[in-house]
Amino acid sequence: MPTSFNTPRDPFGDGFNGCVFGDTATAAGGCLTNSLGSISTASYRARGVNAVLSMNAGPTTLGLGLGYANRRYLVPPGVIVAGTSDDNWYGQLFASQQLDSVSSVSGNVYANYYESNLPGAPGVFGAGANGSYYRSFGSLSAMATLGISTYDVEGAGNTSAQALLGLRYGF
């Protein structure tokens, strides 16, 4: 990970979407989805690949992260996960633009597909997008955000749209 980076977050749940993008030209960043998604009490061998592209040009920041992770369980025969593996594909696109010294806009699009190879376990797809406008009034700052998120578990899922208006006073 670079020492200075942007972490695009979901403003509605303050959730982490998987990738961080470097603030400087020498550090692209990285995706942590395979590392954080592989937390398990069972022994496993994880393999995967990440690709991250980050660009900072004046007031504009862009980031793209893509990846794949496979986890093969290494447990004794008879354990439910013995001989199985799971796969995770993910991607994220982030952009921000400083409009002037007191305002900026940002956008974030992400998608993830997880497939467990346990018998009868469904695949899970999740995706979302959000855009925000930020404005500072000295110690008072304001934010307006719109977003949409969806998930699908083999035909059964949900889509939701959200809006957020917020004020913050910093001392």
List keywords for this structure.
single chain, 3% helix, 171 residues, mainly beta, elongated, three-stranded antiparallel β-sheet
Compact summary:
This protein has 171 residues and is mostly beta strands. The chain has 1 helix and 12 strands; from the N terminus they run βββββαβββββββ. Strands 6-7-8-9-10-11-12 form a 7-stranded antiparallel beta sheet.
Q: Can you give a write-up of this model?
A:
The chain is 3% helix and 66% strand. The protein has one helix and twelve strands. The strands form three sheets. The protein has a seven-stranded antiparallel beta sheet with strand order 6-7-8-9-10-11-12. The protein has a three-stranded antiparallel beta sheet with strand order 1-4-5. It has a two-stranded antiparallel sheet with strand order 2-3. It is elongated. The chain starts with a strand and ends with a strand.
